[in-house]
Amino acid sequence: MRLAEWQTRMRDTLLGPGGFDPALLARLADPPDQRERRLSVYRNNVRHALFSVLEAAFPVVRQLIGAECFTATALTFITEHPPQAPVLYAYGSDFADFLSSFRPLTELPWLADVARLEWARNEVLFAAESAALTPDQLATVPPEELGGLCIGVRPTTHWLASDWPIHAIWAAHQPDGPPLETVDLHQAESVMIWRRDGVVRQELLTAGESALLTAFTAGRPLAEVAEAGLEQDPALDFSAALARWLNESVLEEPIMDISLPHACGSSP
Amino acid sequence: MPTSRKRATLPAQAGIGLRHPHLPAFLAAPQPVAWLEVHSENYLAPGGPRLAALERLRSDYPLSCHGVGLSLGSAEGLDAAHLARLRGLYDRLEPAAISEHLAWSTAPDGTFLADLLPLPYTDELLTIVAANIERAQEALGRRLLVENPSTYLRFQQTDWDEAAFLSELVRRTDCGLLLDVNNLYVSAANHGGDPEAALNALPLAAVGEIHIAGHARVATSWGELLIDDHSSPVAEPVWALLTTTLRLTGPRPVLVEWDTQIPELPVLLAEAERARICLREITNAPG
Fold first, then answer.
1. Which one, out of A9, A224, B77, B272, has a CA that is 20 to 30 A from the CA of A201?
2. What gap in Å lies between CA A194 and CA A153, rounded to an integer?
3. Distance (Å, rounded) from C-alpha A157 to C-alpha B103?
4. Judged by CB atoms within 8 Å, which residues 77-136 of A form the interface with B?
5. Each residue of B88-143: pLDDT tens digit?
6. Alpha-carbon distance B133 to B136, whole Å?
7. Is the Cβ of A139 closer than 8 Å to some Cβ of chain B?
8. What is the nearest CA distance from A3 to chain B, expressed in angstroms?
9. Residue A87 is nearest to which of B41, B118, B156, comparing CB atoms?
10. How does pLDDT run across B244-262, given as a tens digit for each residue?
11. Taking CA atoms, what residue in A is nearest to B69?
């Protein structure tokens, strides 16, 4: 058996749920009654390594469905979706999608969105640094140019909208969090997750604030961002939201020199 | 030798594997350890507090980067994207040494199995691994240290024993050897071999770094199987084998690894202190 074929068979037997491939066992020099036990060391190592990654990334999902169910679910995921690159900080990106279609768990419709929230926290933790726009920098922009200013959202800022109370469910599973019984499971929530000073943070967004982040990301100038937010929520305090996000390092310094007059989009 | 730029070398002293739970202690105060090693794959993310911490510590401690994902034994060759990721990290950190394993972890379809899987030491494999090492040294711009693996099974069809295979790799590729003394002990115990005989057969002049770690003993129907799980203190026979090794190689950088059930930092530092004493004893010994 050539090395490539042997490695393909090893892949299948280590990830597979069944017994060991007899063709592999037949190639070993160890006594026949020891071969499965020896091969099982590697199967255990592979599963343990990948399981540990998922366990660390999805602690709330694990609490929600229980350790035993989480283990069975994660092992099925590992078999069906093993990593395709040796970059394990990125392993689990499609776990939420898997959960949403995993039949044994479909009676927990909010579970996949909680997993998306946990994955967003993981992505925020490992996202690249970029220069944050500070309140002082923004203060140097002449008032007449503010409306045309394009401000981006930092790679360390994510947000997601859910039909379920994902922030409340998540908070109920933190140390000293409120009990899960107090959560209204029919409440839709939008959450912003961001990193400041190396720590991942998250908070609820109002509908207006969600509209602001969407408009920022679309590259729209500040005046249009404000309009989009107020259209969604006439009671939105745009200045207060902007000031808070500047203090929290949520927004990105524009690529162009902020002291120069500039606007978004193509020049006329 | 693909390297041309002059770089710092690892000191022939005791170091420890730097793990995430110990980052705060290292950031808060200098720790009594001569050098640090990290798993390269734990620092490939584009940003975040761990990478920032390592970049800070980098200026205070000589650093070794230990790869656990390049899969030198892959039949289909190395993953170009992964080589590029590692090159980026190494150019950023400028480690004093880089290493990989005589093992495989990436299957022909690209699946990463997250373990150091065993290889049959055949002529076919020798050609494959030698080519992979040469490509890696070229792409990374540095000499690789290649680590002897801990193994739990043996193959019927082999053309080489492990020591001879490693010697031939060193000869063909000019790579160095990362001698894991615990792996040597674990593999010998699991296959009924003599670790000192295996030690003497290795290309010891090529040893650029030494690893020691704890292992577990698991009962089986035929006796004990030793599992290289890095979850406990270094076993007494491994300390003895370390001293034997150092008498043969002379002083070398010695690293204590502890990867699961990670203890408080002082426990790990005490292991490094014992390694320091081993190093001092062999340098003071006559002859």
1. A224
2. 10
3. 39
4. 82-90, 125-129
5. 999 999 999 999 999 999 999 999 999 999 999 999 999 999 999 999 999 999 99
6. 5
7. no
8. 6
9. B41
10. 999 999 999 999 999 999 9
11. A86
Q: Does A244 reach chain B within 8 Å, measured CB to CB? A: no
Chain B hits for A49, CB-CB cut-off 8 Å, are 114-115
Q: What's the rounded Cα separation, in Å, for the pair B182 and B201?
A: 16
Residue B1 has pLDDT above 50, yes or no: no
Residue B66 falls inside a structural domain: yes
Q: Which of B235, B245, B230 is nearest to B279 (CA)?
A: B245
pTM summary value: 0.94
In B9-75, beta strands by DSSP E: 14-17, 35-39, 63-66
The CATH number of the domain where B217 resides is what?
Answer: 3.20.20.150
Asked if residue B134 belongs to a domain, the reply is yes
Nearest to A86 among B75, B105, B156 (CB): B105
pLDDT band with cut points at 50, 70 and 90 for residue B284: confident
Can you tell me the ipTM of this complex? 0.95
User: Is B1 part of a structural domain of the chain?
Assistant: no
For chain A, say whether B152 makes contact (Cβ under 8 Å). Answer: yes
Mapped onto helix, strand or coil, the DSSP state of residue B208 is strand
B177-234 pLDDT per residue, tens: 999 999 999 999 999 999 999 999 999 999 999 999 999 999 999 999 999 999 999 9
For chain B, give the mean pLDDT.
95
From the list B210, B134, B212, the residue with the least C-alpha distance to B177 is B210
DSSP summary character for residue B117: E
In a domain, B133, yes or no: yes
CA distances from A234 to A187, A237, A239 (A): 21, 9, 13
Range of the domain at B177: 35-52+60-284
Q: How many CB atoms lie within 10 A of CB B191?
A: 16
Residue from B151, B152, B154, B260 whose CB has the most chain A CBs within 10 Å, to mutate: B152
Task: Tell me the CB-side half-sphere exposure of residue A5, using CA atoms within 13 A.
Answer: 7
- Record the tokens describing residue A79, joined without a space: 């078999």
Using the Cβ of A198 and the Cβ atoms of chain B, whether some distance falls under 8 Å is answered with: yes
B73 vs B117: CA distance, rounded Å: 9
What's the number of domains chain B is made of? 1
* Parts of chain A with a pLDDT under 70: 255-268
Any bridge partners for residue A153, and if so which? Answer: A251
